[in-house]
Each structure stands twice: as C-alpha cells, then as structure tokens.
Design brief:
The protein is an all-alpha fold and about 240 residues long. Helices cover about 80% and strands about 0% of the residues. The protein has one domain (about 1-244). The chain contains 14 helices and no strands.
C-alpha cells in the first residue's frame, strides 16, 4: 500500500501544480452557491438546509467529475509515459488505485471548499447537521464511483476530449437510470423485477438515501462494488496496453 499512497500524493500534488485546479475549485464553489440559493429557491422555501445543493450536486458532477478523470490515463498514454509507469517496480493495480485516490482527494477538497454554505445555513437557521454530514459522505461516494468509471474510460484513449465526452455520457446513464422518467418508461415495457434492477443500478437512487440522514448497507455495497469493478477494468485495459 506504500506505493499506492506515494502515487496518490504525487498525483494530488500535480493537481495543485497548475492554476487550472484553482480555477476548477472557484467555478465549482460559485456554481454550488448558485444552485443552492438561486436555482434551489433557498429563501423562498423558508427552510435553512442544503437539500437544494445536494439535489443539484449529481448534475454538477456530470461535468466536473469527467473533467477531472479525463486526464488520469489519457495524458499518460498520449505522452507515452504509461508504458514507463507500467515497467516500474509497482503493480498495475497500485498505479490505478493511487491515481484514483488522488482524484477522490481533489474532489474532497472541492467539497470542503463548499463549507461556507454549511456555515451559512447554520447561521440562518437550525438545520439537521447529521443529514448534511451524511449527504457529504454520499456525495464523496458518488464522486468515487464516477471517478472510477472515468478512470476506465480515460485508459481507453489518448485524447482527453474523447475521454471527457465518453465519461459524461456513461455517467449520465448511471445517474439518470434512477430518475422517475426513466423508471416509468422501463415500467411501461418490462416487469417490476427489471424496474427494480434498473433502479438498483442507479447511482442517484443510492445517493438520494444519504440526503435523508441514513446510509443503507445496500448503498455501501453498491459504491464499493462499482468502484472495484471499474478500477479492475482499468487495470485490465492498461495491462493490454502494456502488452501491445
């Protein structure tokens, strides 16, 4: 695990080695404020909580997460350093996990940067901070799933733009599969058992539960299994690249 954390530290430092990271954080925080107070009708609702922020957060992730994950391996493949990385005395899974951890750490920093929103709602009212905390944990878990997916997509191509577009498309499928419009469409054609399967595969379905103040075991299993699956798929793709 030492190699994993060494890679994670190096990669996380690389994120903040360019001004792009800080621009990313500023835009994320600004948009978080917009969806919370403007689009979420915060003052009109008369309720001091962050439900509007967490309701819109998965949709913000559809753009921001692929923007982070697109460079994980596409940049390495384009520069040819992926072959060099694979020849180092580390296991492919260590490199994949280390890079993924660094990306999760970066998103965690972005979520921490929205802490003033939490302070604001506590100043204006008495929100359920337990619910807010569980929602933040759910948001980080959702980010972990989408980053693992984005890592796999990034490993397939040398073009970051292609990696971004494909990650957005696949993330959109994972998130929207649990929305009422999709489930109603599936329900009109398939039996209830298929509808339940589609809903269970949706990241949004599991994320919504954390906004109610509890973390279901099924959501934990979902997040862990999805992350492991996509990271394992990334290792397979990179191993084939090395073989080529």
């Amino acid at each position: 695990m030492t190699n994993v954390f060494t890679i994670a530290r190096r990669e996380l430092g690389g994120y903040f080695g360019t001004p792009i990271a800080y621009v990313f954080l500023v835009i994320f925080v600004v948009l978080s404020g917009v969806v919370t107070f403007h689009l979420g009708n915060f003052f009109a609702r008369g309720s001091a909580d962050l439900s509007s922020f967490f309701n819109y957060l998965p949709w913000l992730f559809l753009v921001f997460i692929p923007a982070v994950s697109m460079r994980l391996w596409a940049e390495e493949r384009k520069s040819g350093t992926v072959e060099l990385l694979m020849t180092l005395p580390i296991e492919p899974w260590e490199a994949v996990t280390g890079k993924w951890l660094a990306s999760v750490g970066f998103i965690a920093v972005a979520l921490v940067a929205t802490f003033p929103l939490w302070l604001t709602v506590n100043y204006l009212g008495e929100p359920d901070n337990g619910v807010i905390m569980s929602s933040y944990l759910g948001a980080l878990a959702l980010a972990g799933v989408l980053l693992a997916l984005g890592s796999c997509v990034s490993a397939f191509t040398k073009n970051q733009v292609i990696a971004f577009v494909l990650a957005v498309a696949l993330s959109f499928v994972i998130v929207t599969s649990g929305t009422p419009i999709v489930l109603d469409s599936v329900r009109a054609v398939f039996p209830l058992a298929i509808v339940d399967v589609v809903a269970a595969m949706s990241a949004l379905t599991h994320f919504t539960g954390t906004g109610q103040g509890f973390v279901a075991l099924s959501s934990v299993v979902y997040a862990v299994s999805m992350i492991v699956f996509w990271l394992f798929a990334t290792v397979i793709v990179l191993s084939n690249t090395k073989a080529d």
